[in-house]
Amino acid sequence: MNALYWLIALVILLVIEAATLGLTTIWFAGGALIALIAAIVGANFWVQMGCFILVSLILLIFTRPAAVRYMNKDTLKTNVESVAGQEAVVTEEIDNLLGTGKALLNGNPWTARSEAAEKKISAGATVEVIRVEGVKLIVREIVREKESKEAEEVNENV
């Protein structure tokens, strides 16, 4: 194959990559570059095509995962993904058996359920968001050291 065809293919693939920035054609551009070099040194069509396919696949398989991680490292979590681990305040008692419960998280009201099915959480309690299921927060009550010490003192006095 004429080196000019590989040069055209290389330019087209690079233009597509520059336009999309999606790491979709850069791997094939690398293959086209090696095939272009093979054509320049006089390799036959099958050697050029083999170089193109082999180099493209090697680049795609071995370098794409690392490149994608590098490109997406600054990607912000969506609102739902960023909610896990945050603290909320229970505004309506959470009772999974009755299907009741609300919590206020970052100023927004949410329907809330306890992580433990039998655990009721009273209004005013602070909870940690474990995960989001649909439009419900799944939460766990946070027991502060001060609260646990007070509970121990009450148990000792009894």
Structure description:
There is one protein chain. With 158 residues, this protein is α+β, with helices and mostly antiparallel strands. Helix content is 49%, strand content 23%. It is built from 5 helices and 5 strands; from the N terminus they run H-H-H-H-E-E-E-E-E-H. It has a 5-stranded mixed barrel with strand order 1-2-3-5-4. A hairpin with a 4-residue loop joins strand 1 and strand 2 (100-105). The longest helix has 27 residues, at 45-71.
List keywords for this structure.
5 strands; 5-stranded mixed barrel; single chain; alpha+beta; 158 residues; 5 helices
- Give the biggest sheet: 5 strands, mixed, barrel
Number of helices: 5
| Mean pLDDT across all amino acids | 85
**Helix-strand topology string:** HHHHEEEEEH
Q: How much helix is in the residues?
A: 40-55%
Stretches where pLDDT falls below 50 for ≥5 residues? Answer: none
Span from first to last CA?
93 Å
Tell me the radius of gyration: 29 Å
Number of strands: 5
* Sheet/helix structural class: alpha+beta
Question: Which sequence of strands runs across the widest sheet?
Answer: 1-2-3-5-4
| Percent in strands | 15-25%
**Spatial shape:** rod-shaped
